[in-house]
Amino acid sequence: MVATNAIAPRTGNVSAGTSIFAMVVLERPLREVHHELDVVTTPVGDPVAMVHCNNGASELAGWVGLFTRFAAAAGSPLEADAVYETLFREALEGEPDAGGLLAYNHLAGEPIAGLDEGRPLFVRTPESRLTLANVFRAQLYGVFGTLALGMRVLDDEGVGLDRMYAHGGMFRTAGVAQRFLAGALGAPVSVAETASEGGAWGMAVLAAFRAAVRAGSTADLASYLTDRVFAGPAPVTAEPDPADVAGFSAYLDRYRAGLAVERAAVDSL
Predict the structure, then answer these.
(1) pLDDT, tens digit, for every residue of 83-93?
(2) How far apart are CA 188 and CA 168, in angstroms?
(3) What local confidence, expressed as pLDDT, does residue 198 receive?
(4) Backbone region of residue 9 per phi and psi (left: phi > 0; alpha: psi in -120 to 50; beta: other values)
(5) Could you tell me which CATH number the domain at 2-54+154-235 has?
(6) Which end of the chain lies in a sparser environment, N or C, as judged by fewer CB atoms within 10 Å?
């Protein structure tokens, strides 16, 4: 929360790494208990609903590694960062619903999806459009799939959300994962220059804030973050594209239905 300056009500953050989670600062307590949600607080004590998923970008990294090796085997080796950028940019050319493809990133169990164990799967039907662009749009959507299931619970609770702030390595390629996340959440997603930093940087900011409090130069975390830590260039914000919102919604409907395939894989393999 501190690393993204998402401590005000109706704001939240998404952190995408080995795992992925979203934290939304609430205006009021939740009406019911939900197994998909944990309730925590901001550093100043405001209630926060947290959607935590065990599986994040690790399966995506495996696919990128496959293409990194292909480039090397073809005699045109590329650095991993270049492969990520190439494949992410290609995903922008994919169909809004990823052409009927499905990617499950479950290397480990995922309680929100009802899975005790993980079975990463890539699924398509004979009618699906198997293109590189659709494959990688599906892989990026897959990183956000289980997270979106939990976020839909917050929607049903009537939780208001004005803006999400994103951080994690997958947002280093500007405008791709950020855009797809905005479509998945149906809310603006902002990415700051520090987006590739994570919790360790946020803890360092909190330590600096504590030192400032002791020195008597500040007493308010929100002002400290806004006026000092994030006083530089404004974050880049992606508004949800209606086509992406509709496409991800269609993807998520198939994703939810296809969880039966995931459970069968756990039972059988």
Answers:
(1) 999 999 999 99
(2) 17
(3) 67
(4) beta
(5) 3.30.420.40
(6) C
